[in-house]
Design a protein that fits this description.
By secondary structure, the protein is an alpha+beta fold. Strands 3, 4, 5, 6, 7, 8 and 9 form a seven-stranded mixed beta sheet that branches. The protein has a two-stranded antiparallel sheet with strand order 1-2. The radius of gyration is 15 Å and the shape is globular. The termini are far apart.
């Protein structure tokens, strides 16, 4: 498995991704939301994913490589997961959460949150089936309601983002 940046005894260190999640180590992450007005593109994680398979998540989420710039990571993973190559998301903020993702695994992420504006009608995608089973556009306010009614079909981090950080996703970017 890949090595990701995690804090061990207070020092940022490359650690095996599975070990990070088994031990619940605090580690770096990147999350992207692609928006078309109030509609958000969400993805259903591939059934082959080692945690939270088949659950719906935000547009894209990942761990950066060691010393990788978060913006470069966001652009890279939009391409790797969804085949999206013509969007450069805008940094919104850094946040932290800890969540049980099942199977004895913990996500304790320090997340750089990004948002991109795109047209649902013209956004080109080529889904990577090893990463993404399906996508859909949904009004983000409707999604927040759906998540409260059927939380078990959504990733823990998407539930946290919608509950605690919706304002960051919806904030308008200065032109």
């Amino acid at each position: 498995m890949a090595m990701i940046p995690a804090w061990v005894d207070g020092t940022l260190t490359p650690v095996d991704k599975l070990e990070v999640h088994v031990k619940g180590l605090r580690h770096k992450a990147v999350s992207v939301f692609i928006m078309d007005d109030n509609n958000v593109l969400i993805q259903q994680r591939a059934l082959s994913k080692y945690h939270t398979p088949g659950l719906w998540a935000n547009t894209c989420c990942t761990h950066p490589h060691w010393d990788e710039d978060p913006t470069i990571c966001a652009v890279r993973r939009l391409d790797d997961e969804l085949g999206i190559t013509d969007e450069v998301p805008v940094y919104r903020d850094q946040l932290e959460y800890r969540a049980d993702v099942g199977g004895g695994l913990i996500e304790h992420e320090v997340v750089d949150l990004f948002v991109a504006q795109a047209s649902a009608k013209t956004l080109n995608m080529a889904l990577n089936p090893d990463e993404v089973a399906a996508t859909r556009w949904v009004d983000i306010h409707d999604l927040a309601v759906e998540v409260t009614h059927t939380p078990d079909i959504y990733t823990p981090w998407l539930r946290i983002y919608l509950r605690d950080h919706l304002n960051l996703v919806l904030a308008k970017t200065d032109a």
